[in-house]
Amino acid sequence: MPTSRSYRDSCGIARALDVVGERWALLVVRELLLVPQRFSELRHALPHASSNLLADRLRELEHHGVIGRRKLTSTAGPQVYELTEWGRKLEPIVLALGDWGIDAPNPPEPTSLSATSVLIFLRGAARPDSPPIVCRLDLDGSVWTVCVASGKVQVHSGEPATADISLRTDPKTLGSLLADPASLDTALAEGSVALVGDLLALKRLLYGG
Amino acid sequence: MPTSRSYRDSCGIARALDVVGERWALLVVRELLLVPQRFSELRHALPHASSNLLADRLRELEHHGVIGRRKLTSTAGPQVYELTEWGRKLEPIVLALGDWGIDAPNPPEPTSLSATSVLIFLRGAARPDSPPIVCRLDLDGSVWTVCVASGKVQVHSGEPATADISLRTDPKTLGSLLADPASLDTALAEGSVALVGDLLALKRLLYGG
DNA sequence: CCGCATCCGATTGGATACTG
DNA sequence: CAGTATCCAATCGGATGCGG
Q1: Is the pLDDT of residue A77 over 70?
Q2: What is d(CA A163, CA A204) in angstroms, rounded to the nearest whole number?
Q3: Can you tell me the distance from the alpha carbon of A47 to that of B9, in angstroms, rounded to the nearest whole number?
Q4: Tens digits of per-residue pLDDT, B78-126?
Q5: Contact A104, B100 (CB under 8 A)
Q6: Which residues pair with B80 in a beta bridge?
Q7: How many CB atoms lie within 10 A of CB B27?
Q8: What pTM was computed for the model?
Q9: What is the rounded distance in angstroms from the CA atom of residue B153 to the CA atom of residue B163?
Q10: What pLDDT shows up at residue B2?
Q11: Which helix (H) or strand (E) holds A130?
């Protein structure tokens, strides 16, 4: 009679929530939107989730077919978690939920902000009509490529072939920069942001124009 | 130090989940998408949620500004819960989540299916390019108007001014009908669906064509 | 270190009963 | 009808352990 934890409701909304409605589940999906990640990377991205809980969610999401795991090297070695084809269809929903949540009150400090989160926000905020640019972005040591070209903003993991500008900072600082353009100068001055390349190009990328 | 139940993550997605991520919250929102509802109506729509939990969620959603409560008569009397302007912005997100959840495995029986759920599904499934029609729909005693006109499908609570066809059934039967067109004839025969008007018009409304 | 599993106190969810 | 009060089971969060 434990009747599991299902909503036992035939509606598609309830059935979706049976799969991704439990605590942390959609944040795991968020983390996997840009790139497959390893267990330890997910832990770093979601520092307020305990390890057992994260392991539970990953197992459940895998069991429901939202994510899969793939070995990086054949036969024993590190593995990454990635969205399945079905799981990837959550992307527009999760992004829309993020837009909606912008208007919510801020959570109590201290807060976390993962690289994936801020990159998703940057991708949505960057003006696609700004001039083409390739930016190398080093966030907490992991390297990303932000590319604006022909009206599209792309973000993916790894080194760019060539870069117009190069930025090194951490997710929370980048988040502050996006929220408050005025903070860019002081961040550069105190070294929390290191820039190689044209400052004006960076401002166009982050704030449009 | 209880550090509440917040995700403590600055990302908009996490902040949205701080508001509507708790159990039952989004199903309450779903119930209020079509029409404001009273406490007892919500209980009937979500029979697997206990009363204290429903009261808790309503209080929290109100506190966060997703829903509000309004007195039907001035000074003491019944009250209804309704979405705020901000809460109404969840509609496309919740509908998209429902579309995604259609592909999820069905929950274990027995399942519930509220009038709102099935009407939302009907509204999305009905072909807007079918001929104009006004349908009076009596679901478990509450009356709705389904109106197809000029390429739009509308569903709202209450009696239509005039109706081309009139249907009386319950949400679960209507859900079965939408899922399986072949079940319509037997449902009519055994009386679980009562139709007044043109059967062909009903089939066009439910299944397109 | 990485990828979990185990243990435990604090919260939360669920069912029933009860009150204004 | 519209919720509270109460009790108990399940879950969460945090710390720790542990094999590879």
Answers
A1: no
A2: 15
A3: 9
A4: 889 999 999 999 999 999 999 999 999 888 888 999 999 999 999 998 8
A5: no
A6: B70
A7: 27
A8: 0.94
A9: 15
A10: 43
A11: none
Q: What does the block give as tokens for B92?
A: 């496309």
Decide: helix, strand or coil at residue A189: helix
Token pair belonging to B68: 């509000």
Q: Name the residue among A27, A93, A118 with its Cβ closest to that of B7.
A: A27
Number of other residues whose CB lies within 10 A of the CB of residue B123: 18
Which residue in B has a C-alpha nearest to residue A99's C-alpha? B12
pLDDT in tens, B25-41: 999 999 999 999 999 99
Q: Which of residues 2-21 of B touch strand C (CB under 7 A)?
A: 2, 4-5
* Count of CB atoms situated within 10 Å of the CB of B202: 21
Q: Nearest chain A Cα to B115, which residue?
A: A11
Q: Give me A75's structure tokens.
A: 């036969």
> In strand C, which positions have an atom below 7 A from any protein CB?
1-7, 10-17
- pLDDT, one tens digit per residue, over B32-70 is 999 999 999 999 999 999 999 999 999 999 999 999 998
- Using CA atoms, how far residue A5 sits from A1, A25, B48, B165, in Å, is 11, 14, 11, 40
How many CA atoms lie less than 13 Å away from B16 in the CB half-sphere? 24
| A29, A99, A108, B5, B14 from B2: Cα distances, Å | 26, 28, 12, 8, 19
Measure, in angstroms, how far nucleotide C18 C1' is from residue B42 CA: 21
What integer pLDDT is reported at residue A2 of this predicted model?
40
**Structure confidence by residue, pLDDT tens digits, A126-146:** 877 888 999 999 999 899 999
Give CA–CA dist B98/B84, Å, rounded: 21
ω into residue A110 within 30 of 0, thus cis?
yes
What is the largest distance, in Å, between two alpha-carbon atoms of chain B?
65
- The CA-to-CA distance between both ends of chain B, in Å, stands at 61
| Mean pLDDT in residue range B14-21 | 95
pLDDT tens-digit readout, B190-208: 999 999 999 999 999 998 7
| Any B CB within 8 A of A2 CB | no
Q: Which helix (H) or strand (E) holds A146?
A: strand A142-149
- What is the band of A76 on the pLDDT scale with cuts at 50, 70, 90? low
Rg (alpha carbons) of chain B, rounded to whole number? 19
